[in-house]
Structures are given as structure tokens and as C-alpha cells.
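Re: folding output
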Amino acid sequence: MSTTPLTVGIISPYELVLTGLSAMLRRHPSRVTVCDTSASDGHLAGLDVVLYDAAGLDPVDATGGSDLDHLVRSNARVVVLARPQEPALAAAALEHGIAGVVRMDASTAEVIDLVARVARGAPGGSPSTRHVDAKLLSLPQGLTVREFEVLGLVAAGLSNAEIAERLYVSINTVKTYVRAAYRKIGVDRRAQAVVWCAHHGVAAN
């Protein structure tokens, strides 16, 4: 039984990513149709899935992804393309309410399979329904996405109270994340955590 191919848009600041990924996906016309995203506005919400390159986020202030926020607010189903060497960007992108994450080195079949799973779900997603595994982000020491994010905020000098305010959680929840993260990275003081973050490229996100 034939099915209609999924419509997919690709957003990246790099022509190499745009043309390369488009060419990969276009080899499977029965499953996906790659659509033009040159006019990045609300019409993208009409696509089944938008593939968004995490490189479009500011590496220092990943909350600055206004176009990503716009896509999510317009109910687009967004899958972020993550580079294994930049887990902080992918972790930060999850906080925008995206539907999934796929590694940039994934095979065409893996990308299409994830696109199909995301297309079947509701736009966006809660942490329990997003198509992402911390292992896909190459997070060190078995850290969860949230623990990694909290460490980034610790490295930025935020207090537990400030982190709680930033993440819209209770201070006790932050303390739980901090304790778990410290245990995994083998430190017991904030100064040690900051040093560990500096050595492992963990920046504020």
C-alpha cells in the first residue's frame, strides 16, 4: 500500500549541510519530499518535520535561537541536527520544546526513521515524549541532558536559586540535579565543578 511522502524542510547556516542532507534525503522520494525553506516563516509549520541545524544557535547564549523559538511556537515539528562535539548546543535546543535530536553523523535511514516517528507525534514534545537519548548527544560521564545544562549554569556562576529561576523549577529540584551531576563527574564542591566544566568544554547554555 502506497503512502504519501513526508514533507521535510532543512534549516542550516551552512550550504554544505543544506545541499548534502537534501541530496541524501532526495534519494528516497517514496518516503520524503525535501521542501524549500529559503523563506523561513510560519509556512514551515505546514511541513511534516523541520530539520534544524544546531549550529544556528549562538554557542555562548543558546537561548538566542529566535528562529527556532518561532518554529516551535508555530507548532512545527522540529528535529535538531546535533554535532557530537557540541553537546551543549543540542542540550540547549531541547529546552526550546523541539520534538527530537539526531546526530549529524547518522545514516540516511536513521534520519528518515526519526523523521517518520516525529511526524506521527504531536508538535513539540515533553521530555518524556521527545525522540532523544542522552547517548546521542555524547554527554560525558553518563550525565542527563538536564544535569549537563545545570552544570553549564553552575560554570556560568549562577547560584542554585538563580538556576531554579532560569529553569522554572524549585530550588530543591536544582539541588537534586547538582548532587547527581557532582557524583557523576567526581567532585563535591562548586569550585571543582567549575574547573571540570572548563576542562570538558561545558559552557553556559
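--- second protein (sequence, then structure) ---
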Amino acid sequence: MDRIAAALERMAPAPLSAPDFGEAAAFVWHTDPERLEPVAEVSRVDLNLLVGVDRSRDTLLANTRQFAAGLPANNALLWGARGMGKSSLVKAVHADVQASHEALKIVELQREDLPSVGRLLNLLRGAEERFILFCDDLSFGHDDAHYKSLKAVLDGGIEGRPDNVVLYATSNRRHLMPRDMIENERGSAINPAEAVEEKVSLSDRFGLWLGFHACDQDQYLAMIRGYCDAYGVAIDDETLRAEAIEWQATRGSRSGRVAWQYFTDLAGRRGAVL
């Protein structure tokens, strides 16, 4: 009987109970088994260290403050060039607003776990806290039906999105799907317009579209100088400029991520602890 009971428990587990949201400011949603796991220390940078994203920063910060205060707020899609601080901005904005609104939590949801998002929302719906549901590097490929789960969360469904949940997602693609996938739908569907509309309507359900574009050289150098000043790494401007430009040339790209990678190397060589 004990073995039968254990097997039934695995097949139909008991409803999840909400964790103690007061024990952490951030959580990660896991499946198999489904649970919200608290994160003791979030990997993030200070909001003031993010260079070249002033407009997106101000817009997302204002939207998040509205949400934390219990006012209407939009879901946000941060899209654009890789390595330009989309994910860092979400985490930094949360930290900035959470400092004055302790009830604001952030929950990370992996793209692969989107089919379980309905159960996650049911877990968050009755809580007193307010939650930023964060989905990083969101995109969909051919024969990927996960986007249908997300559409219901953003706008559709009878229950709709809980008032205490807002979704922030990052992606390299504005419409979350590769261009050739959209073009294929346009060329092969019985009604091309309707097929394309179904695909691109997902991104339309985000109230805020915040674009991120590749930085220029001055911004790239300003990022590194900001890191040096913040962490107390001494280096003269001429040496920094020469080394940083050589570093980005070897990488074949220039972005906030490349700036941080150069700074990490520099800090290690100078014996600084980050």
C-alpha cells in the first residue's frame, strides 16, 4: 500500500504551497518537481554602471515603480543587440525599486518551462507581494509551440494575468521569431496574412518595446572606465584605451558584455577583488 501511495503521489502530486516570499527578493521557478527556489544573492550590476541605455533605463524604471506602487503597468520586451545589458537592466531596475518596495519580487522563468507557467501564476495570484516574471533570452524556432503558452499569460485567457504579476522578457529578436520562419509562413500558408499575424501578435502583447543597439567606441570605453572607478581599479586613460580597443578587436565585436570581460581580465591582472 505504501508503494502504491508513493506511485500515486508521483503521478498526481499535491497542490503546491506558496513559499515564504519574505525570505528572499528573488526566486527561480523549477520543474520536476515544480517549486519556487529562493536566490540568496542575485548576480547583477549597479544601475548607475549601465551606460548607453538611458532612455530604456528611465522607461523601465518608471514602469516598475508604478507596478511596485500598485498602479497599472505594462509588460516589457527588451530586444536588440546581444551583450548590451538587457538582462542586466531588468535585474538592476528590480534592485533599485525593491530597495524602497520590499514586497517587489523577481521570479526567473526559463523558456523551456513556459508550458508550466499557468501553475506558476496560480501560485503567485493569491500572494500579497508583487512579482516581476523574468524570462531571459526569449525566442522561438520552427515547430515550437511554447509561444502559445506565453500568449495566454500576456493578454488572453479567461483568468488573464494576475494583477500582482508583470512580465519582463529579453530577446535578440523584436518579434521573438526568426525572419525566415515568418517568411516561410507568408509563403506557404493558405492565408499568408493570417499566418504571419498569429506569429507576430505575440510581441504585440507587450506594452513596452525597448530597443538596444550596438554601442560606439566612446560608450564602450565609458563602460570600462565606470567599472574601474566603481571597483577601485587604477589605470590611466591612454593604457585603458589601447588595451580595450585591442581586446574588442580580437573579439570582433563591441558591447557591454565585451567591456565587462575586458574589465574582468584587467581586474585580475591588477589584483582587484570584484
